[in-house]
Design a protein that fits this description.
Elements (H helix, E strand, L loop, with lengths): L1 H12 L1 H21 L8 H13 L3 H28 L7 H18 L5 H18 L2 E2 L2 E2 L6 H17 L2 H31 L4 H14 L5
Antiparallel strand pairs: 1-2
Length: 222
Amino acid sequence: MEIKIEIENQISDSRRLAFFLSLAGGFQDAYSYVCRDHVFANAQTGNIVLMSGHLISGRFLEALHYLFPIIAFVSGIYITEWIRYIYKENNILHWRQIILFVEIIAMVFVGCLPSSMNVLANVILSFSCAMQVSSFKKFRGIPFATTMCIGNMRSATEFLAKYHITKEKDFIYKSIHYYGAILIFALGSSLGVIFSRILGLISIWIAAIFLFIGFLLMLMKE
């Protein structure tokens, strides 16, 4: 029981884990856009807008490039809930470590796919990102996402306004926390653009390395 509590606390509270997951999240979005037909792995809002535009224009085949990742994202969240239910009592590996392991395998596999299989690559990436966003929701007791920015941006600005209104230091701490998460995501996106242009399709393996570091951190005691 003590081991399980230690792992749970570390998963929820590690800033280092949040750092590498956010780097990976930003990297994946940039990679899928630059290397895989301008599809967003994480930002399903963008995919919905682009899919709708193609549908209205009568380009139904092109719309499928965006529909499949959306379906994969929904499926990833659904399956994550089953993994949590089945492995929540596992004393060997925490269920979130299983999620990370699946993500790492997915990233390695995507790097092996040729450009002719971009649709499959984007489906796997969206599925993987959904698992991450559904599994890692809180760090240091503060909820935030490691694969997208809009929610973090809203929370950061909301807490900044509350600080200016109330002068309570806890609000500015939370605001900085969220803005920092956005900067880390942006850093991951920048690295994704740079290495996607240099290494091409296999550059996603760098995101897998970030996730693997996160996996190792979860095995360490805080």
